[in-house]
Amino acid sequence: MPRQNRGEVWLVDLGMVAKVRPCLVISIPVLVRDRALVTVVTHTTSTRGSRFEIPIKTRFLDTGVFDAQSLVTVSEAKFLRKLGNLQPDQLSEVEDAVRQWLQL
User: Fold this and answer.
1) In sequence order, what DSSP letters do the residues of 28-83 get, joined into one string?
2) Which residue among 23, 52, 83, 88 is buried most deeply as judged by most CB within 10 Å?
3) What do you get for the CA distance between the two ends of the chain, in Å?
4) Cβ atoms of 83 and 66 closer than 8 Å
5) What is the Cα–Cα distance from 34 to 50, expressed in whole angstroms?
6) CA distance linking residue 91 with residue 74, whole number of Å
7) Percent of the chain with pLDDT over 70
8) Three-state DSSP state, 25
9) What pLDDT band is residue 3 in, cutting at 50, 70 and 90?
10) Residue 67: exposed, middle, or buried by beta-carbon count in 10 A (0-12, 13-18, 19+)?
11) How far apart are CA 5 and CA 18, in angstroms?
């Protein structure tokens, strides 16, 4: 299985309730001695107009937003398929919203 890297968008199985959805990897790659966990920001098409929702246009995502309030840590085994990479400025927008949400 390919390793997930920061800034990549993957299709991730988040379970029955959250379903399979695109997710942006925001954690750094794990080392062999680390737990095989990855933290992501989920992408949703159910927008609410929140200040923590970041709309990003890419060739692999049509509509929707990355929701900085929806941080999830999942096993590497839940990653199904890589969709693409965000540009550095796009990743920075999402990172800013996550920092604001967590008051970092």
Assistant:
1) PPPPTTS-SEEEEEEEES-----TTEE----SS--S-EEEEEEEEEEEGGGEEEEE
2) 23
3) 33
4) no
5) 34
6) 20
7) 99
8) strand
9) confident
10) buried
11) 22
